[in-house]
Amino acid sequence: MILGYARISTDDQNLDLQRDALLKAGCERVFEDTASGSKTERTGLAALLASLRKGDTVVIWRLDRLGRSLKDLIGLVERLDATGVGLRSVQENIDTVSIGGRLVFHLFGALAEFERNLIRERTQAGLSAARARGRKGGRKTRLDPAKREVALRLYRERKHTIAEICRMMGVGRSTLYNYITEADSRVLESA
Left, alpha or beta for 88 (phi > 0: left; psi -120 to 50: alpha)? Predict the structure, then answer.
């Protein structure tokens, strides 16, 4: 079967252009979503994927209508390929059933991996440079040492609830628990 998938991001947009192009491309059924590409839950796409059988072809108007990102698109194409389903894009004239179409997707995948590695390298270089200048990553501490001791004393006195201590000190529960854990570990180390 030849199945189509169309997606628009907002209710203000119209599916007619995509729907017409998919029907012209020979789609027997068109699955549709009105959802941002960044949304992971797309019921039309889920229904399409659930109905696919080996030998089917999914037709889309443009590649950006299918995947939320290049990585997501490549993952979907690999999933389709693993189940014996082809993908055809009307605007880009790409067909993964052909050798040339598969080559294009492998190139996309290689470029995406290259980009991820570049970003990782830049991030590591930036962190190393910051460390060399004496900068330390992470959030700044919420309480100075004196206020931290007050919070710990209030906790150990057991006269106030955790919520009350957090409210008095202006910190969240996880911050207070982190201070408690840190203080307890210092006590164990010194023992």
Answer: beta
Q: From the first residue on, what is the mean pLDDT of each consecutive set of 10 residues in the chain (191 residues)? A: 86 82 92 74 87 92 80 83 89 83 77 80 89 81 87 92 92 90 83 66
Give a yes or no: residue 109 inside a domain: no
Catalytic choice (9, 36, 128, 185): 9
Whether the Cβ atoms of residue 52 and residue 28 lie closer than 8 Å to each other = no
Which residues, at least 6 apart from 188, have a Cβ–Cβ distance to it below 8 Å?
Answer: none
Q: Are residues 7 and 94 in the same domain?
A: yes
The answer on 75 and 6 residing in a single domain is yes
Does 89 qualify as catalytic in the annotation? no
**pLDDT tens figures, 128-150:** 898 898 887 777 777 888 999 99
Q: Is residue 25 part of a domain?
A: yes
What is the CB neighbour count within 10 angstroms for residue 80? Answer: 19
Put residue 179 in one of left, alpha, beta given phi > 0 → left and psi -120 to 50 → alpha: alpha
